[in-house]
Amino acid sequence: MTARRRKPLRIGLIGWGAINRHVVRLLSRSVVAEAVSIVAIGVRSPERAQDIPADASLLTDPQQLAGLDLDIVAEAAGQPAVALWGESALRQAGAFAVTSAGALADTALLERLMSVAEAAGSQLVVTSGALAGIDALAAASALPLDEVVHAIVKPPAAWRGTPAERLVPLDALTAPASFFIGSAREAARRFPQNANVAVISALAGIGLDRTRVELIADPGIAENCHRLSAHGAFGRLSVTIENRPLADNPKSSEMAALSLVRMISNSVSPLCR
Questions:
Q1: Catalytic site residues (predicted)?
Q2: Superfamily of structural domain 9-129+254-267
Q3: Does 204 count as an annotated binding residue?
Q4: 22 catalytic, yes or no?
Q5: Whole-model pTM?
Q6: For 244-253, b where at least 16 C-beta lie within 10 A, e where not — what string?
Q7: Residue 59's Cα: distance from chain center in Å?
Q8: pLDDT digits over 158-215, tens only?
Q9: Where do the structural domains in the chain lie, given as residue ranges?
């Protein structure tokens, strides 16, 4: 008896930076390598897109997604790319996976993308990114949640070039310093590069305005840390993760790429985990 063969999952990638390059490397070495096909890569500057997969088309316009018969379009190109490519991706593929979740703090954009997804019969997928425990938080939200707190703790150097420089003496810290406490929406607006991930926990739990975010600079750590806590009708949750940066881009975490690989692998693997 022969097993029924499934056609390869057709994937379009938006962005060809450190995250998507790492995703392609990991998929090529994984057990699902033969079950996925990188069909297209969307970029802003094609002259800078080097070493793309041999059979992939290079795209510069969202309308070029049409006719490619894509199953998933996965974005890892920064917040502006979500608005630029999102609607076309949702119309031309079964799912649009977003890693730059901070873009969805824009309520008008989120509602527009959800409306397009509903009309097209596709899905807007927010990956778990650099976080742990998002599956449990999302499950817990089926019952009333009383509180969700997301603390983002990073070395002082990680906060350079942000408003944190005006709030704490980053170069002189000798102990952890909390410099922001507020909503996930406000954190994502004021610290788009560093608090982008707070939108993920907010959408999984009690929303952008009720999720409380604390930002901390800690001279005693070398890795980016997320501490997620919640309580409600389900009980209590407390999760901490310390992320190693991507070798090719220290501003991105290894886990951001790994979460995207997991999402793609689960789409074709006989065991979804």
A1: 226
A2: NAD(P)-binding Rossmann-like Domain (3.40.50.720)
A3: no
A4: no
A5: 0.90
A6: ebbeeeeebb
A7: 21
A8: 899 999 999 999 999 999 999 999 999 999 999 988 888 999 999 999 999 999 999 9
A9: 9-129+254-267, 134-243
